[in-house]
Design goal:
With 104 residues, the chain is α+β, with helices and mostly antiparallel strands. It has helices at 13-25, 29-39, 45-52, 56-68, 88-102; strands spanning 43-44, 72-77, 80-85. The chain has one domain: Winged helix-like DNA-binding domain superfamily/Winged helix DNA-binding domain (Arc Repressor Mutant, subunit A), CATH 1.10.10. The protein is 58% helix and 13% strand. Strand 2 (72-77) and strand 3 form a beta hairpin. The longest helix is centred in the C-terminal third of the chain and has 15 residues, at 88-102. It binds zinc ion (ZN).
Length: 104
């Protein structure tokens, strides 16, 4: 069983890796736009590309990145994949950071 580290203890390597990867995911304006959109609902790759004026290939590439980090998930309907967010913590961090950007 893994104990929650106290703030005085150093973080283990796995935790550091995941934290760094999480901020890397949020350190790209396109990924931020996609995650922000997926906060509000479920969209196909086409719909995301359309709403954000992005190329489908760009959207697919970024969704793969976000899927690998388990920040988004999809379900298949016919020939389309519908994506939504898959992590409440990271969506919370994103909401907080957007509020931070807007309170100045
Ligand atoms: Zn702030």
């Amino acid at each position: 069983m893994k104990n929650e580290p106290t703030p005085l203890e150093d973080l283990d390597e796995e935790t550091l890796f995941i934290v760094s990867q999480t901020f890397k995911a949020l350190a790209d304006p396109t990924r931020v736009r996609i995650l922000n959109l997926l906060f509000y609902g479920e969209y196909s790759v086409n719909e995301i590309a359309d709403k954000l004026s992005l190329l489908q290939s760009t959207v697919s590439h970024q969704l793969r990145f976000l899927k690998n980090l388990r920040l988004v998930k999809f379900r298949r309907e016919g020939t389309s994949l519908y994506y939504t967010h898959d992590d409440e913590h990271v969506m919370g961090i994103l909401r907080q950071t957007i509020e931070h950007a807007n309170h100045h």
